[in-house]
Amino acid sequence: MNVQNQIKRALSKPEAIEYVRRLLEEEEEEFFTRTELAEVVCEEFGFQDPRGQNQLGGCLKGLRELEAKGWFQLPGPQIQKGGPSPRRLSNSVEEPEGVPAEVGNVGGLELILVEQESQMRIWNELMIGEHPQGAGPLVGRQVRYLIGSAHGWLGGFGFAAPALQLADRDRWIGWDSEQRRAHLHGVVCLSRFLIRPSVECRNLASRLLSMSLQHVVEDFQRRYHYRPWLVESFLDTSRFSGASYRAANWILVGQTKGRGRQDRFSKREETIKDIYVYPLEKDFRTRLGLAAGAGLGPLGPADGLDGKNWAKQEFGGAPLGDARLSERLVDIAQSKAEKPGRAFTGVAKGDWPAVKAFYRLIDHPDEEAVSMPHILQPHRERTVQRMKAQRTVLCIQDGSDLDYSSLAQCKGLGVIGTNQTNAQSRGLHLHTTFAVAANGLPLGVLRAQCVAPELKSPDDHRPSWAVPIEEKETFRWIEGMRDTMDLAAQMPQTRLINVGDREADFFELFDEQRRHRCVDLLVRANHNRGLIDEPFKLFEAVRQAPLQTNVQVHVPHQSARPKLSKKKARPKRPSRQANMEVRYQRIQLRPPKYHSDKDPIDIWVIHAVESSPPSGTEAVEWFLLTTVNITSSEDAVQCLRWYCLRWRIEDWHRVLKSGCAVERIAHDTAERIRRAIAINLVIAWRIMLMTLLGRQTPELPPEVLFSDIELQVLCAYSKKTLETAVNPGRHGAPRRADRRILGTRQGSSAGSPVDVARLFATPTHV
Question: Do 116 and 206 belong to one domain?
């Protein structure tokens, strides 16, 4: 029950009505205003907010409703409906003179708290004459400022009560309805912000925003006896870009629904605005008593993918040491996503300032600030939000080599392998953690490492078992596992499962999970290990387990690969549906000799083998090791399907290399390549998600992914493709160019952005 209903119920009781009647009838008590009456009633019945202030508004509303029912007659209202006209000047405010072009040269810049009648008249005159929303009235507790300078009045600020309910803001804070009612008074809304149209001064807006935040805390403390902890503001993107907010380190948390404070009938009559917030206290969630990991609430898989705002959502606010670099990153990602496979010079289409901005970001000298983790940080935060909306999330780890052997002059590359002539291939090794929902939709990139592999020193004669795990390449899997464990504490309602291929089958990883069981493991076995109290080794033991069930599994296409120096030749394999026999058993893995002091690993093993493979084809056989408790054949089949989703990261790597062409990136240092790769990681994720959303949720409105102009193009193109289907070419098939546009290139399994365009460009959806 909300506060207003509580007040109404209390006032509707007979004893409360009788009390109000007595107050109105007693001759010794003269209530000149309704407000004075409400003050007494609030004190009598305890209508106070968490700060101890009387809830006059709710009380007055309840009294008026009782009056309308005929229970008593209230004193006449002091202020007639519509309120008085704002106090104004007789003439307009004089224009400032001689305002310099740089904010550092503005003389006497200050904020003046509006307290006097003359100051209020100036503020009202400025807002009525030059602000789109006018002078007010402002809502609730409020403070106003005039922006003064040696050049004249430059504008003004107005701070007031916040929005009562705001879905994106409340989700970002992480509070529930009860916590919101108790602590909403600590949020202040920047309701008016005016820099006069005649003033053109670079960086003035961001400077004033910072100055206003320094003043509003102290003035609220002095006037209302409490300190606000958060400021919110709403930006009309049809009028303003929001660059000043971002430059002042405000945080974009979402958008409004297009409804006003008094809209009770869901009429979308107002402009949808961006919501910006600025925390005045960094630890406000702890002070509010919110649980660890609260805030930045759940998101759907498709949230933030629209053609207009996705780059701002996934890259905005990246901690690059300069707000301008963060803005530049958003613009670069937005442009690059339109033509992901081309160099930025081709993407910019002759916009040389944009090209210059791109290379300034890529070539930035501060390698600590402009780094791959910092570029990916906003996307990681959004990925965590999307994970919170899921009951089960697969955190898939895998590595992929990126070949840059053609960049002979590039510094900082490592050796990723040798060819059949023993010539070294130079490049980088990319190890990532990719979050995937249980339905197969990719949620985002959680972690990415891009390292330059180093050859073992010829002077290092240590056997592999004697090398500490921290010095081995396999330690990346443990780091990824630890990162997933840290995330598990932020989402106790979401089950996290770390999935890996045969490269993840090493004892130290299972030992790490045993010490921190908040995340489960699902790994394909690579080694036929010894078991405790078993005469057979792992593979033989589980093969002798009783058959539990059969299941159909999709086996993806496999391209042929010639024999390499360290890898066997791989034959071509078409995709097929395989009938798999499933067995499972609980076992204890014997620790290796160099870990004889460790306890055995208690784990489940699932055996899946193809019962009748096609002639001339090797049967598919998997041994899956998992910490998931297997109590039935349904549990085993579920783990098997989860492991099948491991191919999502393979498809993502394919999109990254083919669609985004990351191996064709050409820079003179490995660090610059890493920065470019980081941008493409998110773009490749978006491409893949768009494709899968089109296949799995065809009812999704196209406006989620495409802008208005893109939809118009797709509508026009869909007519052309329909005509082609009705009137095929000479050989009954589309031309080569048409196949390329439609994304139907033979052998492509990951899809392309145009795949989604073709799926959505139908009369049903457009």
Answer: yes
pLDDT number for residue 142: 92
What H or E segment, with its residue span, contains residue 578?
A: strand 576-589
Q: Which of 51, 148, 78 is nearest to 109 (CA)?
A: 148
Question: What is the Cα–Cα distance from 194 to 123, expressed in whole angstroms?
Answer: 10
**Helix (H, G, I), strand (E, B), or coil: what is residue 82?**
coil
What is the reported pLDDT for 594?
Answer: 85
Measured in whole angstroms, the distance separating CA 291 from the mean position of its chain's CA atoms is 20
| Burial (0-12, 13-18, 19+ Cβ within 10 Å), 408 | exposed
Dihedral over alpha carbons 602, 608, 609, 611 (to 10 degrees): 140
Rounded average pLDDT over 144-161: 94
Indicate whether 219 and 151 sit together in one domain.
Answer: yes
Instruction: Specify the pLDDT at position 706.
Output: 61
What is the separation of C-alpha 188 from the centre of its chain, rounded to a whole number of angstroms? 25
Counted domains in the chain: 4
Q: Which pair of tokens denotes residue 54?
A: 């009387």
Rounded Cα gap, residues 572 and 114, in angstroms: 78
Domain at 214, CATH number: 3.40.630.30
Torsion of CA 66, 68, 70, 72, to 10 degrees: 60
The reply to whether 57 and 164 lie within a common domain is no
> Residue 525's pLDDT is what?
94
In a domain, 35, yes or no: yes
Which tens digits make up the pLDDT trace of 622-672?
999 999 999 999 999 999 999 999 999 999 999 999 989 999 999 999 999
Q: What CA–CA distance (Å, rounded) separates 526 from 502?
A: 5
Residue 302 in any domain: the answer is: no
Dihedral pair phi/psi, residue 568, rounded to 5°:
-75, 160
- 537 found inside a domain: yes
How much is the mean pLDDT over the chain? 82
Tokens 């003004």, residue located = 156
* Alpha-carbon gap, residue 535 to 206, rounded angstroms: 73
372 three-class SS: helix
628 and 762 housed in the same domain: no
pLDDT in tens, 440-493: 889 999 999 999 988 777 777 788 778 888 888 889 999 999 999 988 888 887
* DSSP string covering 407-473: -TT-BS-EEEEE-TT-PEEEEEEEEEEEEEETTS-EEEEEEEEEE---PPPTT----GGGS-GGGST
Classify the C-alpha dihedral 542-546-547-548 as positive or negative.
negative
Residue 253 has pLDDT above 50, yes or no: yes
* Cβ-proximal residues to 172 (8 Å cutoff; 6+ apart), any chain: 251, 253, 254, 277, 295, 296, 297
Q: Which residues, other chains included, contact 329 with Cβ-Cβ below 8 Å and sequence gap of 6+?
A: 315, 318, 320, 361, 375, 679
The CATH number covering residue 548 comes to 3.90.350.10
Largest CA distance in the chain: 110
Q: Quick check: is 346 in a domain?
A: no
Q: What is the pLDDT of residues 398-422, one digit of tens each?
A: 999 999 999 989 999 999 887 666 7
> Same domain for 482 and 545?
yes
Question: Looking at the structure, do residues 388 and 517 belong to the same domain, yes or no?
Answer: yes
| 719 and 658 co-located in one domain | no
| CA separation, residue 45 to residues 19, 59, 67, 691, 724 (Å) | 10, 10, 18, 60, 77
My answer on whether 233 and 167 are in the same domain is yes
Omega into 137 within 30° of 0, i.e. cis? Answer: yes
Q: How many other C-beta atoms can be found within 10 angstroms of the C-beta atom of residue 18?
A: 12
> Could you tell me the pLDDT band of residue 300, with boundaries at 50, 70 and 90?
low
For residue 54, give its domain range.
3-68
* Phi and psi, residue 353, nearest 5°: -60, -40
